[in-house]
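Session log. Operator J.P. requested a structure for one protein chain; no other inputs attached. Running the standard single-chain path with token output.
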Amino acid sequence: MKLKSLAFSAAIFVASTGFIKAQDKYDIAVLSYQYDTPKSHIVSSINGDKFESVDVEKEELQGKVWGISMNPIIKRVNKMQNEGWEVVGGLEYSYNVSTGVTQMYYNLRKKR
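Structure written below.
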């Protein structure tokens, strides 16, 4: 009986470690569109290692004041999707009362 129990425990252990190793690994990216700052910009962070801030030019805003147009961030998300990134978190909104800055976020992932 102990042999069956030991064999069963060993089988569960092997199966569970195989499952853990089989889980996919992803690169994680967050895009933030900050539009009520003196100059609208898109900030991206990838895996907490790469950081980039790109100013949004007035032409990209299509005449909208302070980046009310969501086109700049949507275009950036589409570009990243063409590079193999997958959107996993839709457009989220955040407003910081103390700084008066509004941010729109997208969360993306890419299989390693």
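Operator note: The helical segments are 2-22, 71-82.
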